[in-house]
Design a protein that fits this description.
Layout lengths: L13 H20 L10 E5 L9 H12 L5 E6 L5 H10 L2 E4 L2 H11 L2 E5 L4
Parallel strand pairs: 1-4, 2-3, 2-4
């Protein structure tokens, strides 16, 4: 990633001095991300989620995807295990197979042994 300074930084002013430490921090974080270990799984994953919490139809979409995909593939739901979301857990359990864990990586490792496709409900939390 090539970082270019904004034009206003060419002029010495208070904003250029205040924002320069953020540039160094951002550059350092992006540099370190290149060395980050990434997990590769044999199972195909579909992440259903968005930035809004509740009422946007994420679980309903995950159920519909499960119905469509389970016709030809072994499909499973993966849901983080939160005590305040037991109603969603029960709803998904009625509709299909589910693996629940606080660690999605662990859940995906379990799922890849038996299933072809994993649907991560509310995967962006």
């Amino acid at each position: 990633m090539i970082l270019k300074k904004p034009n206003f930084w060419k002029k010495k002013n208070i904003f250029s001095f205040l924002l320069y430490p953020l540039t160094i921090l951002t550059f350092s974080i992006n540099f370190l991300k290149k060395f980050n270990f990434k997990n590769n799984f044999k199972i195909k994953t579909i992440c259903v989620g968005n930035l809004n919490v509740g009422g946007t139809g994420k679980t309903s979409l995950a159920i519909e995807l499960y119905k469509l995909l389970s016709i030809k593939r072994k499909t499973v739901f993966i849901k983080k295990n939160y005590s305040n979301q037991q109603d969603e857990f029960k709803l998904l359990k009625k509709r299909g197979k589910i693996i629940s864990s606080l660690d999605r990586v662990f859940a995906l490792k379990i799922a890849e042994k038996k299933f072809d496709v994993a649907i991560l409900d509310d995967g962006l939390q």
